[in-house]
C-alpha cells in the first residue's frame, strides 16, 4: 500500500512491497523451477567439482613422510639477536658436548687385506714362520721373505726381524699394532 498526497507524491511505502520484490527476486534466480536458477546451480556445482579435481591432482607434494627427516632445510634469519649472549654460548657448548661426534672413515684402513693392522700382523707372523724353516740359510730366508712381501721392505729390515726371538716378535707385534691404532684414531677427524 502506498500513501499519496494531493500532488500525487508518495509519502509512505509499506514494507509489503519490499518483501514482495525480495520474494520475486529469490523465486526468479534461486527457485529450482526457474531455468536461470537451474543453470546457475549446474555452473556452481561443475565449477566446484573441477576445482576439487584440479586441487587434488595438482596439489604440491612436499615429500614429508612420517618417521623420515624433512627433505627441506629450514634456515633461520641472519639477524637473530640473543638476549643473554653468555647463557646462549653456555647452552650451545652444553648441547654440542651432548652430541656424539660423527666420523667418516674406512674400516679397511685398520683391517682387511690392505689394512695397516693386517699388514703389521702379517709381517710379524710371516717372520716367525720363515724363522722356523731350517732347510734354508739365513740369506735364503731373507730373499724368500722379501719375495713374499713383494720387495716392499729392505733386506736390512727383514734380516733384523729374522734375528729377533719369538717373544720379541710378539712384543713388537702388540706394540706396533697399538701405535698404529693410536695414529689412526688421531688421523680420523670428526666431520
From TrEMBL:
Q: Does the keyword Transmembrane apply?
A: yes
* Residue span, Metal-dependent phosphohydrolase 7TM extracellular domain: 65-190
Sorted alphabetically, the keyword list is: Membrane, Transmembrane, Transmembrane helix
Fetch the Pfam families from UniProt.
7TMR-HDED (PF07697)
- State which residue ranges cross the membrane: 40-58
* Name under which the protein is recorded: Metal-dependent phosphohydrolase 7TM extracellular domain-containing protein
Species assigned in the record: marine sediment metagenome
